[in-house]
Amino acid sequence: MDQGKKASIALLAVIAGLTAIAGCRWLYGLPLGVDSTVYRAGALAVLRGQPLYDPLLALDPESALELPFTYPPSAALLFLPLALFPAQLVWLLFAVGTVLALWSVLRRFSGTRPVLLLVLLAVLEPVWRSIGLGQVNALLMALVVWDVLPSRDRRYGGVLIGLAAAVKLTPLIFIPHLFLTGRRADGFRALAAFSGASAIGALVLPGDSARYWTSAVVDNRNAGSVGWVGNQSLHGMLARFGVTSMAWYAALAALCLLLGALLVREFHRRGDPRAALLVTAGCALLVSPISWTHHWIWVVALAGYLAGRRAAPAGAAAVFTGLATASVPGGGHRELSWSPIQMVLGNAYVLAALAAGAVLTVRLLIRPGGRDRTSRDRLSAKH
């Protein structure tokens, strides 16, 4: 049996399993998918003329815990089709979409048996938690990857990044990535796509748009959770160390972005666009005020990139299984009383990303030179 048939069978088996879960939960009226429920509730709020940024009346308190809608109004419009389906089916759509998106990303980052690698990566916390929550992050990651690492021509390059940013603002960081790598036309298209989607949101939902862009976008309703162990960002790590000054956070974020830009330019110059993309994704996760552990879904692309490189994938898997962060007390500000060892374990995602950035910076400094032909040729062979 060839690899294509094996891949199809494996994907169909996964989809069948997810469908069975959703069907059973629907038959018994059990909640499923916390985040996908929020997306659906946002769509219902639009259809019912209810405010997006007040408590969502369509939420099931048993499953969603009164979570707010934190996305721009354009996202609510894109989520409108979800209102047609029960919550369990909406979860199924996002769960299946996540699996297919991860498979697609692995195909661009690893040329060796992406389905087998995807099955092995199911042990990673960002993967199983994203599927369990019904998260949209894997789909947004796939849009960015398809745009930055196209398999065909770039006639409409940048549009997918703009649409991803219209759902969640974090992908905006990939617009500077396009400019840094010399794709100015794609960068302007991304800006146009994002601006166009935002303008449509303002026309259809003027009140919600005004509230989002003037207050909700900076309303730190997660302030009490910034220092929670689940927030694996620079801001979260500083809060766990008891550093509340925004100046420290701003300085570290600026330094991270500066070094990240230099690494992106250098990897692009050496002909390794995948590494450049991973650097930008890592910077986005580090500098974002809130980066929940499931936001680190980019570890799947990293594992694909590292596949076949001795112990590197195993090391990444050891960090991102979530065992380290689960081994320390969290919540109720208990993070402030961590021991030094607990500080290392509880900040595992952040420290791993910072360590990787430091290693890359040192290696590029001590090995200046030409293009990375091995990486370039590998990429060319696959695309």
Radius of gyration: 21 Å
Give the helix proportion (percent range): 55-70%
Q: Helix and strand string, N-terminal first?
A: HHHHHHHHHHHHHHHHHHHHH
- Secondary-structure content class: mainly alpha
Termini, distance in Å?
23 Å
Residue-averaged pLDDT, rounded? 87
The tally of helices reads: 21
Q: In one word, what is the shape? A: globular
Largest sheet: none
Question: Beta-strand percentage?
Answer: under 5%
Which segments are poorly predicted (pLDDT under 50) over 5 or more consecutive residues? 372-383
Secondary structure: number of strands: 0
Q: Could you provide a short overview of the structure?
A:
With 383 residues, the protein is an all-alpha fold. The chain contains 21 helices and no strands.
How would you describe this protein?
Helix content is 65%, strand content 0%. It has helices at 3-27, 34-47, 61-64, 73-78, 87-109, 114-120, 125-133, 137-148, 159-167, 174-180, 184-204, 206-214, 234-240, 246-269, 273-287, 299-306, 312-320, 323-326, 340-346, 348-366, 373-382. Helix 1 runs antiparallel to helix 5. It is mainly α. The longest helix is centred in the N-terminal third of the chain and has 25 residues, at 3-27. Residues 372-383 have low confidence and may be disordered.
